Amino acid sequence: MFFEKLNFNKPIVRSGPNSYNRHDYLRFDCGDFSQCNARFSYMHALFPWNKDLTNSPIQRAVRFRDKVLNISSDSEHINNMKLYSLNKILFYPSGAGFMNEHTDGYNNLGHPNFLIALSRRGQDYSSRGGYYVNDEGDSVNMDKYTEIGDLYAHIPNILHGVHTVDNDIFPDLNSARGRYVVNISLEKVEYGK
User: For 174, which of 72, 146, 155, 190 is 20 to 30 Å away at the CA?
Assistant: First the structure.
């Protein structure tokens, strides 16, 4: 299982800007950050240049995303900016994991994010989780409608977040229980750093 392969004893806290040929990393987010929304989660960043993902489910989703958006994330230059596919496995632990409500598009020229569900509400965690805000301002829990392996996307200006997963229990950070998702996003790459 993914959880058991991660070394949770050595995550970084600040990752800074991503540059070409950067190594994959595991980051632990807890609280407010200037570069991202308030959250409590682990993020495993998987850069396309570090491993052959050719036949992986993640790479198949990247190819599907590129086809839908009519781009090539391997060579996409827009306004003198190179975009690459940043594949992130996100883990929101039961009893603590959350992400504040936000919109996307700050670093990718407004391209939509594609996601793959890696956990199932009712099996891997009990309550709450990912949500979108509809036109009436109501939160709609998307995890009630997704199964493991489902691919879904959202436009960058839709409000969304993660309500505290299993907020009625005390967190056990040694447990694998929680919400898992792959976020396949386009990000700006910086060269020469």
Answer: 146
Residues facing residue 190 across a β-bridge: 19
pLDDT tens track for 119-163? 999 999 999 999 999 999 999 999 999 999 999 999 888 899 999
pLDDT-based confidence at residue 75 (cuts at 50, 70, 90): low
The angle at the Cα of 126, spanning 11 to 120, to the nearest 5 degrees, equals: 75
The SS3 call for residue 124 is: coil
Phi, psi of 68 (to 5 degrees): -60, -40
> For tokens 């929680």, what's the residue?
178
Q: Which among 83, 118, 101 has a CA at the least distance from the CA of 39?
A: 101
Architecture of domain 2-189: Sandwich (2.60)
- CA 140, distance to chain mean position in Å, is 19
pTM (2 decimals)? 0.87
Q: Which of 3, 91, 87 is nearest to 49 (CA)?
A: 87
Spatial CB neighbours of 118, under 8 Å, sequence gap ≥ 6: 2, 89, 148, 180, 181, 182
